[in-house]
Amino acid sequence: NRRWARVAAVLKELEEQCATPTEKLKEVADAMTREMHAGLESEDGSTLKMLISFVDKLPTGDERGLFYALDLGGTNFRVLRVQLGGKEGRVVKQESKEVSIPQELMIGSSDELFDFIASALAQFVASEGVDFHLPEGKQRELGFTFSFPVKQTSIASGTLIKWTKRFNIKSTVGEDVVSELTRAMKRQGLDMQVTALVNDTVGALAGGIYDDNDVVAAIILGTGTNAAYVERADAIKKWQGPLPNSGKMVINMEWGNFRSSHLPTTDYDQALDAESLNPGEQIYEKLISGMYLGEIVRRVLLRLAVEAALFGEEVPPQLKVPFVLRTPVMSAMHHDTSADLKVVGAKLQEFLGISSSSLKARKVVVQVCDIVAKRGARLAAAGMVGILKKLGHSNGKTKKRMAFAMDGGLYEHYTLFRESLLAALKEVLGEEASASVSVTMANDGSGIGASLLAASHSRYL
Ligand code: ADP
Ligand code: MG
């Protein structure tokens, strides 16, 4: 029973260090608002890059024609084509294909990665059916969704600042990713032009606004996390160029890199960060996104196995392998409602090689999932409140409806995460202010969004 006392002590410490009471979330929200201001003011004054997207025209609904989109940024990359039919026709037809990128290409050479992508795109274009129409003499146009921090130099060019998530290819950093893709398309003999380079958040925002005019920001909660929103161009102090006619500019916050002393972190987080591909960076992302939640849980379980023999005398060897416990598996265990937690038992066996686990141990696993998921979801909600405050929705006086477009597998599939996020949003905003805030799933917003932006920035306009 010394074992169980030890288990309880570790859990109690975890719970305390991960606590996110309303007051703390308000501090995080305020810190987010401050960092937003600082990032708009100067180039290096904030943990938030607040990147200027060069998107100053958002979809109106009038977009027409055939457009392609390519989404690179997660585990899978997707290619998509849409036939847009203006206000009446809307999205007349769409087709997409998902391709998984072999791990070795994510850390190999730039040419190999872009060749792989261009070749998959070429195959997809070859399968274009008669429902899609490209007017004679026109070149196919593509919206390129690229979900990594890019220093945009125009709507269709930008240099890679750094890779994140599972990608790390030195030779691409500092290069124009549109040139990289264009050269690879040429090598594949693919006749197509990139007319918009957008972050997935910016694409999701465009797709969100196409569906709902009150959308002010898009949030990605998938493998990584990020946010984009519509800013007044004259509020961007660091912007040197001419003010756009629309008076607006979409800002890609790169909020995954947010950091604040108010963020609740633990030894597990510090070790995870230190051993990651990008130590010291993307601290907020490492607390809330799908790539990391399962890994945090693994680290806690490993400590419980070592210090309190949670899974028996021997520490399960597989539990020592970084990233073996993926967030979808964590989610499946967290949602297990069976009396004997048989899903937890089965997942522990399948993914960690733990052949038998006591009910008590399974309950501990669920509790760890709960603590880690809740902290992430609630911190994400706090960030959203920070954006609302920046937009003047802080005091509950505004009646203007503001909507968020959400995208990403974590938000979409992890129900308990989503519910915690929505509850925290209400809790921090208060009943009255939250009545004018809505959150909608932008189903594949980023794919459609990128093609809409390719359309609004077409060279044939
Ligand atoms: P990406 O962010 O890579 O573009 P998605 O938006 O599809 O891709 O998100 C995929 C991520 O969502 C996965 O890496 C995983 O972390 C998370 N995810 C997917 N399915 C689930 C699930 N059932 N439960 C929890 N998280 C999930
Ligand atoms: Mg994505």
UniProtKB/TrEMBL annotation:
For the biological process aspect of GO, one term held by this record is: glycolytic process
Write out the catalysed reaction.
Answer: D-fructose + ATP = D-fructose 6-phosphate + ADP + H(+); D-glucose + ATP = D-glucose 6-phosphate + ADP + H(+); a D-hexose + ATP = a D-hexose 6-phosphate + ADP + H(+)
Q: What is its EC number?
A: 2.7.1.-
Q: Which GO terms describe its molecular function?
A: ATP binding; D-glucose binding; fructokinase activity; glucokinase activity
Annotated Gene Ontology cellular components are: cytosol; mitochondrion
User: What family does the Swiss-Prot or TrEMBL record give for this protein?
Assistant: Belongs to the hexokinase family.
Q: What is this protein called?
A: Phosphotransferase
- What lineage, starting at the top, does this entry show? Eukaryota, Viridiplantae, Streptophyta, Embryophyta, Tracheophyta
